[in-house]
Design brief:
The protein has 381 residues and is of the alpha/beta class. It contains 13 helices and 13 strands. The protein has a 4-stranded mixed beta sheet, with helices on both faces. Strands 3-2-4 form a 3-stranded parallel beta sheet, sandwiched between helices. Strands 7-6-11 form a 3-stranded antiparallel beta sheet, with no helix packed on it. The chain binds pyridoxal-5'-phosphate (PLP).
Length: 381
């Protein structure tokens, strides 16, 4: 058995990261300022987006998008239930309703067909998820959406490419830099869009409704004349956090290729473990996976997913659960009352999925340890 606990994830923080953060801390300007702008430009350039707005979280970005699009009572937002709760929570708090669509059983991606079938005259927005860092079928999804706005939930997908281009690109996408994501600010997010109008509106909503948030070099701060154009929130991210994000961002290619290497080793070794079924790659289009998560389904007749996770923990190996489906959680059970069998693939996976440890500082031997421990669990040891 492993001597040291192997967590399911751990942020990759280097001496350069510490130096970048220290530089901001000692610069005399620690909240949102020049490093925010640099971080925004770097992500916009990499993803091919015309505009990028740094925010305190991806959840905050979703909140603001709903505000800007004036989505509220009577409106519907199509999104999967097999995802993190933040999108659905924001939709609920806006007074609108989620229309939960099922996902593909083996990729956990929303399909164009499912979206098409869920569209009604009330549909105001579609939020599909690039699950685990695999690319959605974007051509199919945008064709299904027609004129309805789409915001890609790219929380897992910095470094995900679809047909040779970064996902999101000229369209709308939301990235998260929460502590477990491929790169992190501790907490942080970014909204990217091809629309200047949308970007400007999000930027205004994010900082008190004042028409600007950026550090003005001439003023050495914000212009004292800046005024409220309409009430807004306070969803800015500090330069302390942006410096960490930007420093990490500079390693995104290395970070993701390390993740890919480890994921490929899992795939190879897990061929000998029939009780664990990894997710499949989507087929029919060319894409690059960002490998945010390595998700398996526990398909043993004898050992449940929960028991598997508990047994691995006894063997000093951590795992994660991404995700407990939204519609199965108390508030959503009570308010949506979705009939059993409505989301069969979501429910099938909801009972079986488990995320194995995957982070850049892991070694191939760590992967071997996880697979060996899993084999022991299924052998009853
Ligand atoms: C992490 C995550 C979010 C929320 O990101 P925050 O920055 O924590 O608000 C949204 N969607 C998915 C799929 C996520 O995994």
């Amino acid at each position: 058995m492993r001597k040291e606990f192997l967590p399911f994830t751990r942020p990759n923080v280097t001496a350069e990261d510490v130096e970048a953060v220290t530089e901001v801390l000692t610069s005399g300007w620690i909240t949102n300022g020049p490093v925010n702008s640099e971080f925004e430009s770097a992500v916009a350039e990499y993803t091919g987006a015309a505009h990028a707005v740094a925010l305190s979280s991806a959840t905050a970005a979703m909140h603001l998008v709903l505000k800007v699009l004036k989505i509220g009572p009577g409106d519907e937002v199509i999104t999967p239930s097999m995802t993190w709760v933040s999108i659905a929570n924001m939709v609920e708090l806006a007074g609108a309703k989620c229309v939960f669509v099922d996902v593909d059983r083996d990729t956990l991606l929303v399909t164009p067909e499912a979206i098409k079938a869920a569209i009604t005259p009330r549909t105001k927005l579609i939020v599909p998820v690039h699950f685990a860092g695999a690319a959605l079928d974007l051509d199919g999804i945008y064709a299904a959406a027609g004129e309805i706005p789409v915001v890609e939930d790219a929380a897992h997908a910095l470094g995900t490419f679809y047909k040779g281009r970064h996902i999101g690109g000229k369209r709308n996408a939301i990235y998260s830099f929460h502590a477990i994501k491929n790169i992190t600010c501790g907490e942080g997010g970014m909204f990217v869009t091809g629309s200047k109008e949308l970007a400007d509106a999000v930027r205004r909503w994010k900082f008190h409704g004042i028409g600007m948030d950026a550090f003005d070099r001439q003023n050495r701060g914000r212009s004292p004349q800046a005024e409220v154009l309409s009430p807004g929130f306070k969803y800015n991210v500090t330069d302390i956090c942006a410096a960490l994000g930007l420093s990490q961002f500079r390693r995104i290619r290395q970070i993701n290729s390390r993740r890919r290497e480890l994921a490929m080793l899992y795939r190879k070794l897990l061929k000998d473990v029939p009780e664990l079924a990894p997710l499949a790659d989507p087929s029919g289009y060319d894409f690059v996976h960002a490998w945010h998560l390595f998700v398996v389904r526990v398909v043993s007749d004898r050992i449940s997913r929960d028991a598997f996770m508990a047994k691995l923990k006894e063997k000093n190996i951590g795992t994660g659960l991404h995700f407990r489906s939204v519609h199965s959680q108390k508030y959503y059970r009570d308010t949506y009352r979705i009939a059993p069998g409505t989301l069969p693939n979501t429910d099938f996976n909801g009972e079986r999925i488990c995320s194995l440890p995957l982070f850049p500082d892991m070694s191939p031997d760590d992967v071997r340890d996880v697979v060996a421990a899993a084999k022991e669990v299924f052998a009853g040891k």
